[in-house]
Amino acid sequence: MLKAFRLLIFFGKNLVGCINKPYVTYRKLTDEKTDPWQILYIFILVVGYFTFASLLRTGMRNPFLLTIKFNSLFLAFIIGFLLTVLLFVLVGKIVGSQVQPKTIFVLWSYSLLPTIIWFFVTSVLYVILPPPRTLTFLGKIYSVIYVAFSMALLWWKLILYYLTLRFGLRIDLFRITLVSTLVIPCLVGYSLLMYRMGIFRIPFI
User: Fold this and answer.
1) What is the pLDDT of residues 125-158, one digit of tens each?
2) What's the confidence (pLDDT) of residue 127?
3) Among residues of the chain, what percentage have pLDDT more than 70?
4) pTM of the full structure
5) 20 to 30 A from 65, CA-CA: which of 15, 45, 71, 170?
6) What secondary structure letter does DSSP report for 95?
7) DSSP one-letter string for the chain
């Protein structure tokens, strides 16, 4: 219990750091003394979201469908997450970087924070203000705020993506661009596959 509480404190500090000082925080996370178990709380948030999303889609009336929906979402996420980490490691070796798999695993886990926040907020807004939404003045204000919010989280995500490659692979901007040209098509292909299978309408990356 004491260790779990200590890891929760570390996670809370790193969460705030990823928002206020992502560069400094990610640099600290590359330390070999960083306990990778703190990312357990990130996966707890992921499980919480998938539970919430499954309830929204299937409801409580059919526990069997609820279980199937949750398992499909979580399994697709785990496969996609591990494949991304593996891609970073393999492509990193190709470009001659000093690959640190544990560091990449931790850094990429923290890069999920913008994704989790966006999906949670979007799902809650879906409940509070379900579509179709009108083109009234208030509706337009809502759309502007939502787009601005989404763009801010996308920018945050891109920063964490860059820092994951910068510190996880220890490569410069040129090689980060090269790695991205190899990794991004694979991620797009996986996302399209999940969409065709009806698991993710929007990729959970």
Assistant:
1) 888 877 666 677 777 888 889 999 999 999 999 9
2) 81
3) 96
4) 0.90
5) 45
6) T
7) -HHHHHHHHHHHHHHHHHHH-HHHHHHHHTSTT--GGGGHHHHHHHHHHHHHHHHHHH-SS-HHHHHHHHHHHHHHHHHHHHHHHHHHHHHHHHTT----HHHHHHHHHHTHHHHHHHHHHHHHHHHHSPSS---SHHHHHHHHHHHHHHHHHHHHHHHHHHHHHHHHS---HHHHHHHHHHHHHHHHHHHHHHHHTTS-SS---
